[in-house]
Amino acid sequence: MALPAKSLASAAANGLRLVSVRNSSSQPKVALLGASGGIGQPLGLLLKQDPLVAHLALYDVVNTPGVAADLSHIDSKAKVTAHTGAAELHAAVKDADVIVIPAGVPRKPGMTRDDLFNTNAGIVRDLVETIAKAAPKALIAIITNPVNSTVPIAAEVLKKNGVYDKRRLFGVTTLDVVRSQAFVAELKGHDATKTVVPVVGGHAGITIIPLLSQTKPSTKFSDEEIAKLTPRIQDAGTEVVNAKAGAGSATLSMALAGARFANALVRGIKGDKNVQCAYVESDAVKGVQYFSTPVELGPNGVEKILGVTSYEQKLIDASVAELNKNIEKGVAFVKGK
Ligand SMILES: NC(=O)c1ccc[n+]([C@@H]2O[C@H](COP(=O)([O-])OP(=O)(O)OC[C@H]3O[C@@H](n4cnc5c(N)ncnc54)[C@H](O)[C@@H]3O)[C@@H](O)[C@H]2O)c1
Ligand SMILES: O=C(O)C[C@H](O)C(=O)O
């Protein structure tokens, strides 16, 4: 909630330290952490072009001034600021409405997303530690892998700081949706821009569950088509990692997906409720604490979790044990077990 200028002035006059006032929804600030990276740079470009973004704060441990100078020459609305290194993180996230995090290392061929845990868990923990203090009301969208674990890590850090609100923390699974829609449209000759495929579960291997039965426009798939499409969607990240042959993982399609999700969060903040799939704390599926389903986004983040009723129940059941392993690993990392 933003305070009117008058209250801010009188609070300051009375010597009050204003710690975390969010911008008004009319001037949204988006902070991008990991802004100089393979995802960060094109995602920064797309966010700079988003007419809803008033302030784009770019944070990274390296190269932020150059990326910011470059983006700031684009004739779109968003003001761009650069913040480099831990000492400038607080300023980057302060008053942010939305914080998008692609900071961390990507996979190389032969690695699983879980192999990134040792490096990326600490990066996410430390970033969220500062967010908890400087921007406790921000909506946080985590791209950094392994998403199945980095989201519980972020939640535990926010809980430790007494500011956790399950409606405001998201694992970004939009790329799984984007891919499913692209692959289905290609197979069926649909218009990709009008094809909708929800994807539920998590963001790794068998936890990625495309609900092909709920494709819109309503589409029939043979058993053979489902048997080919499902693993292709589940392994699409690996397809890119292998094609890039050591030069990283998906960056361009992820930038598009990240920008789409950030835009959806900002629209929600502005009162334009909309539905997106995201990995959130959820009671949609029994026996697992975090699960991606379609959720309704609004001014406070998740307004409503839309459940999953689906023909893909076997896939959902099979994902639960794997997800629980990933979640427990993230929670134990913060709790020091
Ligand atoms: N959720 C998804 O669907 C999805 C899709 C693609 C990639 N990813 C993940 O996104 C992450 C980033 O991928 P990438 O290709 O952009 O990697 P990259 O190596 O190209 O970029 C990462 C950036 O993070 C920065 N960074 C490292 N430590 C940091 C810290 N402590 N604070 C701020 N910035 C820091 C680096 O300097 C670099 O600029 C990886 O973990 C990757 O697995 C997730
Ligand atoms: O596959 C990866 O490692 C990156 C990302 O999670 C993806 O799905 O492309």
Automatic annotation (TrEMBL):
InterPro entries, per the entry: L-lactate/malate_DH (IPR001557), Lactate/malate_DH_C (IPR022383), Lactate/malate_DH_N (IPR001236), Lactate_DH/Glyco_Ohase_4_C (IPR015955), Malate_DH_AS (IPR001252), Malate_DH_type1 (IPR010097), NAD(P)-bd_dom_sf (IPR036291)
Active site: residue positions: 203
Sequence ranges assigned to domain Lactate/malate dehydrogenase C-terminal in this UniProt record: 173-334
Catalytic activity: (S)-malate + NAD(+) = oxaloacetate + NADH + H(+)
Keyword annotations from UniProtKB, A to Z: NAD, Oxidoreductase, Tricarboxylic acid cycle
Residues covered by the Lactate/malate dehydrogenase N-terminal domain: 29-171
Gene Ontology biological process terms, A to Z: malate metabolic process; tricarboxylic acid cycle
Listed EC numbers: 1.1.1.37
Positions that bind substrate: 107, 113, 145, 179
Binding site for NAD(+): 34-40, 60, 120, 143-145, 254
Recorded GO CC terms: mitochondrion
Family of this protein: Belongs to the LDH/MDH superfamily. MDH type 1 family.
PANTHER family tied to this protein: MALATE AND LACTATE DEHYDROGENASE, MALATE DEHYDROGENASE, MITOCHONDRIAL
Subunit structure, as described in the record: Homodimer.
Protein name: Malate dehydrogenase
Organism: Caenorhabditis auriculariae
Source lineage: Eukaryota, Metazoa, Ecdysozoa, Nematoda, Chromadorea
